[in-house]
Design brief:
24 strands, RmlC_Cupin_sf, isomerase, 5-deoxy-D-glucuronate isomerase activity, 5-deoxy-glucuronate isomerase
Amino acid sequence: MYLVRGKAENGYHELVSQQNEAGLKWISFGLLRLGRGEAHEAVFEGREVVLVLLSGSMRVSIGHHTFGPYDRPNVFAAQATAVYVPVGQTFRVENVGDAALEVAVCQAVAEEAHEPFVVTPDDVVVKTVGQANFERKVHDIVVQQAEGRVHRIIVGETFNPPGNWSSYPPHKHDDYIPGVEALMEEIYFYQLNPSSGFGLQSIYTSDGSIDETYRVKHGDAFMIPRGYHPVCAAGGYQLYYLWLMAGPVDRVMIPHDDPAHAWIRERSWD
């Protein structure tokens, strides 16, 4: 119900549509693959979009704005470049390189009109989060630094070393408790290094109404309407996931740890 298997075909594929099994209302997600010399033009009414370059060389046109070309060999080789497309504006993505182009198309419900902009690798905010076998790198792409420049959308990337956990201690963000917990839906999109690897993604609630674990692979997406959602990379494989968030109340990230496991954050694991 929560896991969407990836597709390897060229073109645009909506992995998480506006009508989805998990009941996400505020966000959707697609993947764009273009061969050499190919281009794709689209418009999303009622949605703002963040185009995240995953691999290849892209140029993006939005009205009289042209961004690029930008290059990224793959998500593990360089920090992200992303282009913000305001609600209801037509955009065109071109593959301007020799290799295949892959772009994540992150979407959130929006009413506010803003200006297009680009996030370069130098703009990405890099943090080390956690410790021991739950240490990971978190890259903020369109988060606090985009406040006032977007309506609802939040986008970033997390990199798990082999065998390490993230979204850990397990946290959730499905209740609105000011200063304690935000109200946000979320989608994960995974890449593995090597790409033949896998990770384990759990989702559960305190009352047990949700308690499931999935084996996730390169190119899969995962929908998180509610609940705690820790993820682990398999031994020997580096796991990446892009995270897309939005909600109806405000644009703030306040995850709330599972009280049963919050003690882990307070202990030193040296």
